[in-house]
Amino acid sequence: MFRIIPQKNNVAAEINCDLNKLTSYELKQIKSALNNYGLVYFRKQKLSSKSYLNFAKKFGVPANYPRLKGLNSKYPKITVVERKASDKGPSFGEQFHTDSSYTKKPPRFTMLLSKLVPARGIANTEFSSQYLAFKNLPIKIKKKLKNLKAIFSSAGPISVTRLDRENEKGKDNKELKANHKIIRKINKKFTIYCSPGHFKKFLSNNKKYNKELKKFLFKQQVKKKFQYSLEWEKNQLAIWDNRSMLHQATPFKGTRIMHRITIQ
Ligand SMILES: [Fe+2]
C-alpha cells in the first residue's frame, strides 16, 4: 500500500510502494514529498539498471558526473560508488557537501541505489536540511548573506578522498571551479546553498568578517536538529534535492556498492 512516513526532524520521508509498478498519482505524491522533506527513500526495491534509469528520468535529465566513470557503455549515466573492506582512509564523500557544486549548473537531484551494504546502521548517509538551516538564521545574518556569492572547487577540503579515486580510475585531476549565490529559492522556499566540502572563499574583500561568517554559517548548516541519518539496506533507493540538502558518508569498515545517478 502506498504510504508516506515522515522521519525525524521532518527532514526525510520513507515511502512504501513498488517502483516497478508506479502510478502517475503515486509519482505526483513522491515529487511533492521530495519537495516537502528534501529526501525520500524506498526500501525493498528490485530495480534493473533500465528501470532505475527510467525512474530517474521522471525527475529530469540524467547528468554526466564529471569525476567518475559510468557503470558500462550501456549505462554511462549510472556511476558506481564502491568501498571495499580492504580500503583504507576516508570513504567517498566523508564530509558535508552538495554534489558537483564546483560546476556552473550543479545537478538538481542525486539518487543512490544500494547494491551491497554492510549491516544496517553502520554505513549511514547523513543529511542536513538547508531549508531549516536558513529558516532558523537570525534576520541580520539572512540580510548579510542575501547577495553574497562564494567560490567552490573540486580541489576543496573533501577532495582527498576523490583524488584517491581518480588516481585509481585514471581520470584527469584538473581543478573545476564555480561561484554561486549562497541564498537561493528552491520550490518557493529559501535555502542555503553552500557546500562546506568544496568551499574556497566568499566573493567579498573583508577577510576578518569572512572568516567569522564562514565559521558561523558552517556551524548553522549542520546543527543536529536539521539532520537525518539514513540507514541503508540492500535494494534501497534514495533521492534528494541536491540544492537544499547537505549530505555526507559516515566512516565505516566493510564493503559497499552503490549505483548513483545525478539529475539536471
Ligand atoms: Fe555526494
Keywords:
about 25% helix; binds fe (ii) ion; three-stranded antiparallel sheet; Double-stranded beta-helix; about 260 residues; alpha+beta; globular; about 30% strand
Explain this structure.
- With 264 residues, the protein is of the alpha+beta class.
- The protein has one domain (66-232, 241-263): Double-stranded beta-helix (4-Layer Sandwich), CATH 3.60.130.
- It contains six helices and 15 strands.
- The protein has helices spanning 24-37, 49-57, 130-135, 139-145, 159-169, 207-221, and strands at 3-6, 13-16, 39-42, 79-83, 109-116, 125-129, 149-153, 177-181, 183-186, 189-192, 199-202, 227-230, 237-241, 245-249, 256-263.
- The strands form four sheets. The chain has a seven-stranded mixed sheet, covered by helices on one side.
- Strand 2, helix 1 and strand 3 form a beta-alpha-beta unit.
- The relative contact order is 0.27.
- Bound molecules: fe (ii) ion.
- Fe (ii) ion (FE2) is lined by residues 93, 97, 99, 247.
